[in-house]
Amino acid sequence: MNNFEVATFILGKLVFYGCTSLDIQKIGTNFNLISTDSQPFIRTGITTLTINTGVQYLFCNSPSLTTVVFSETSGLTFVPSHMFENCTSLQSVTFNSGMTTIKRFAFANTALTKLDLKNVFILEPLSFYKSGVQEITFNKNVEVKNIWDTEYKDESDVKGEYDDVYTIEQMNKGILSYLTQFMDVEFESDFRLIEKYSTHRFCVFLNESRLTKITLGSSVTEFKSSMFANCSLTTFDVTGNSNFVFESGILYSKSKIELICIATLAATEYTVPSSISIISPFAFTFVPTITKITVPSSVAKFNYAFANMNRLRNITFQGSVSFIPDGAFFCCHSLKNIEIPSSSTVTSAGDLSFAFCYSLVNLMTNSFEKIGRGCFICCQKLSSVDCSKLTILNEFTFYHCIGNTTFTFGDNIKIISKNAFFMSSIESFTVPANVISIEQQAFSMCKELTTVTLNSKLVRIGKEAFAGSGVKNIQIPNSVRFIEQSAFDNCKNVTFSFETGGHPLFDVDNNCFIHKATKNLLFTFGDTYHKFTVSEKVKEVLPNSLRFTTVQRERNEGGFTLFSGVNTLVIPEVVYDVQDNLTNNPLIDSVCLDGISTFNLFFPIRNDMTVFITDDFVYGTYYNTIHVIHDMCKDTVDSRYDPRRYDRLDGIYEGNCSTSINDTYTSEFSDPIYGGNFPFINQKQAKAVFEYAGVSPLTAFISIYVILITLALIFSALYIARIN
Asked: In the UniProt record, does the keyword Transferase occur (predicted)?
């Protein structure tokens, strides 16, 4: 079945999937797809292939495929994502002259030998991940496509129903937004541990242990070492290219004042030549064995120069240093000491300058006037950082710094930017005197942070600013004019107080944060569960103001049912308007409207919820009357469910523990007796562990064993009696 160039075919979904004897040699214009996601050629027995069509077929998971040729008549300008992924025997690929782009995972997990990129000049991250390539020829200056352009599945991706057919990497939207040079988008609310995304996410060639030679064609004027991570290399071939010099295993610029890349170096210590004034980004990516580097005073520019040197422990600068550029020590996981002349003081650091330096303890003499975004991400052992001269604490500056770092802040700082201390181990914080704004998630997930003192000039507390932290009592100064509803989400111990005489705008009553003038409920707070009654000081419940944290696990997933959170919501008679539709509170089973007579009640009811009303109730214009009962309020709390919550002392939660508020950890243990709960469940966003509230597995086993023995004895007795 290999003569497909004569007749015209319309091919359906996975039509040749698993056909190991299929040996089509040419794909032409005679093929058409029922739909763009049909993909008939996944996991077939094709061995050699010439592509004469512009249709974006996928041939992934075809283990017999050895050779691919893109003909000039194909008109293809890019290789789609995953096109040849897991074609483990693919050794040779020939591109057409119009091919300019290789998308992510296109040749992942193949067996390429020699790769000539011809006119390709755009490569997406991980497009040649574990491709096995031995020699690469670049003919154009290559642009590595930014990671945020590839974080979402593009239209060429096979949909989820094909996940068993080939590998689709689970993407996390925007998780690497802080990477300035390579990534620059907003963080999303779906957080994962950032260490998992700290390295290699912008690399094109990763884990290529067979790579020995890179050839730079005559048109190439720049080479980006950042394309490679954890790859071996022996030599560069720059024959016919006058823009580079390759000597003694080192690639230089034509003038030899720029050290571009070291291909091979046996020593563990290296001194940069005094003739060098520029060290290119990721210049040492091919020599991971270096543990010590000496940098002469001649070097003036070293952005990302030492990035990805996982074994580098010590670096010495012989010249004066006052500024650490962007990414200079990015992902230097083992770096412990940075030595600069005693006469030098570092006053400025760029974006990601020390990001993921897990082992860095002493930060040399410093008095920072400026710190870039994400500068100290995941620096877990820093002893101290002097920030007394800062005017802005930048985004993600101390993100996930879980050590015992001492921070010194002065009164010059005006803004604490988003995620500045996200998930750090800071225990207390006094907001500097002139700070006017605490931005989004600035202290979010700081579970050890219990004491926060706000200053008298603070105006704004942003979205999720302290969400998931351990803050307890916070006094809101009279200067504060705006607090986001989610600012204190999942802070189960938080309480609020005000200056003598009360706050001019806000009031607090019964876990309700209230706007004084309008009597609007701005947000609920604290550890609320079971039955919750809105404060009688409230006149109007604003949209999304009910900030109850709930956790559930359904029996239809093979286990048990566990609900924790508010089950019954009571709205007092004084409230005249409810605008929260409870969409974000799925565990509320019943709402009790205590004699409300209203002219403007907008309160859409979920189909699974009951509303109890009195005879005094007047229906609003938009009111949905489904499940409305004229009866006294009935509490739907189930006494079997244990509302107690416990924090993990080590702060470590399993990878499959969901970050969503309403989802819980999936336990391996099943419950043999209906009604008992799994012994261990946790909920990551709220840092909660719900311990066993039902019958333990051991007790259940013993009970079942006793029952079986009892039944056996009964049947034995009946059998004996029958015989007699």
From this structure: no
Residue 303: which of 278, 269, 326, 335 has the closest Cα?
Answer: 326
CA-CA distance, 487 to 472, in Å (whole number)?
14
Q: Which amino acid is at 8?
A: T
State how many domains the chain has: 1
Tell me, yes or no, whether 544 lies in a domain: yes
pLDDT tens-digit readout, 231-284: 899 999 999 999 999 999 999 999 999 999 999 888 899 999 999 999 999 999
- The answer to whether residues 477 and 452 touch, using CB atoms and an 8 Å cutoff, is no
Task: Please choose, from the candidates 349, 354, 418, 336, the residue with its C-alpha nearest in 3D space to the C-alpha of residue 387.
Answer: 349
Global confidence as pTM = 0.75
List the beta strands (DSSP E) in 482-600.
482-483, 495-498, 506-509, 512-515, 520-524, 530-533, 540-541, 551-553, 562-564, 566-571, 577-578, 590-593
Q: Which residue has the tokens 């011809």?
A: 118
Do the domain assignments include residue 608? Answer: yes
Rounded distance, CA 262 to CA 225, Å?
Answer: 9
**Rounded average pLDDT over 172-178:** 27
Long-range CB pairs of 618-626 (<8 Å, 24+ gap) are none
How do residues 55-104 score in pLDDT, each as one tens digit?
777 888 899 999 999 999 888 899 998 999 999 999 999 999 999 999 98
Distances (CA, A) of 622 to 62, 581, 602, 604: 58, 12, 6, 8
Tokens read off for 687: 């840092």
Residues 6 or more apart whose Cβ sits within 8 Å of residue 400: 193, 194, 195, 377, 378, 380, 422, 423, 424
Within-domain flag for 665: yes
- Spell out the residues 6+ positions from residue 717 whose beta carbon is closer than 8 angstroms to its own: none
Based on its alpha-carbon atoms, the radius of gyration of the chain, rounded to whole angstroms, reads 32
Position 480 in a domain = no
Query: What is the domain extent for residue 578?
Result: 529-640+659-669
12 in the Ramachandran plot: left (φ > 0), alpha (ψ -120 to 50) or beta? beta
